[in-house]
Amino acid sequence: MLVKIYIASDHGGFKTKQYLVKNLTEKGYEIEDMGPFDYDPTDDFPTTILPALKKLLNNYETTEEKLNNRDIRAILICKNGVGVSIFANRFKGIRAGLSWNSEHAKSHRNDDDTNVLALPACYVSKRKALRISLAWLKAEFSDEPRHKKRIQQIEELL
């Protein structure tokens, strides 16, 4: 399955984003770099990652599609990964998970069907960020009834 990935960062994740864009593209993933395109030490993650989130959400029209359209995702990067994950999770239909290792990334993809991966650029090397991203991209949602039920509850309770 070809996975389309929107990727964005702030200044803290800028170099990691550039590295991921290059390496994920070389590995055959369809990447759309949503910026920033120049390093700006004064930028703020809410404004720099918003285009990627909007693009991701525009690919979903109904709640059912949000739950089933697993071939379009986003990777967001800031210094500690927490800010981008907090902001992303404010949008209905977004399920962002912050990861610092591959096993953790596979776990939240498997159990929680995350459609956004948040990465902490100051806590993982660029190479490790790539390994985490690949593990998350290759992992699949379990489709277990208990996991589906939880995701449905999240959508309904928002």
Number of domains: 1
Please name the fourth-level CATH homologous superfamily: Sugar-phosphate isomerase, RpiB/LacA/LacB
Instruction: Evaluate the radius of gyration.
Output: 14 Å
How far is the first residue's CA from the last residue's CA? Answer: 30 Å
How much helicity do the residues have? Answer: 40-55%
- Please state the structural category: alpha/beta
- Which regions contain 5 or more consecutive residues with pLDDT less than 50? none
Which word captures the global form?
Answer: globular
Question: What is the average per-residue confidence, as pLDDT, rounded to a whole number?
Answer: 91
Main sheet record: 5 strands, parallel
Taking strands numbered 1, 2, ... along the chain, how are they ordered across the largest sheet? Answer: 2-1-3-5-4
- The sequence of SSEs as H and E is EHEHHEHEHEHH
CATH topology: Ribose 5-phosphate Isomerase B, Chain: A
Strand elements, count:
5
The CATH top-level class label: Alpha Beta
How does CATH name the architecture? 3-Layer(aba) Sandwich
Q: What is the helix tally? A: 7
Taken as a percent bin, the fraction of beta residues is 15-25%
Features:
Ribose 5-phosphate Isomerase B, Chain: A; 7 helices; alpha/beta; five-stranded parallel β-sheet; 158 residues
Short characterization:
This protein has 158 residues and is of the alpha/beta class.
Give a description of the structure.
By secondary structure, the protein is α/β, with parallel strands linked by helices. The protein has a single domain, classed as Ribose 5-phosphate Isomerase B, Chain: A. The chain has seven helices and five strands, in the order βαβααβαβαβαα. The protein has helices at 14-26, 45-58, 63-68, 82-88, 102-112, 126-138, 145-157; strands at residues 4-9, 30-33, 72-78, 96-98, 116-120. Strands 2-1-3-5-4 form a five-stranded parallel beta sheet, sandwiched between helices. Helix 1 (14-26) links the parallel strand 1 (4-9) and strand 2 (30-33). The N and C termini lie far apart (30 Å). The mean pLDDT is 91.
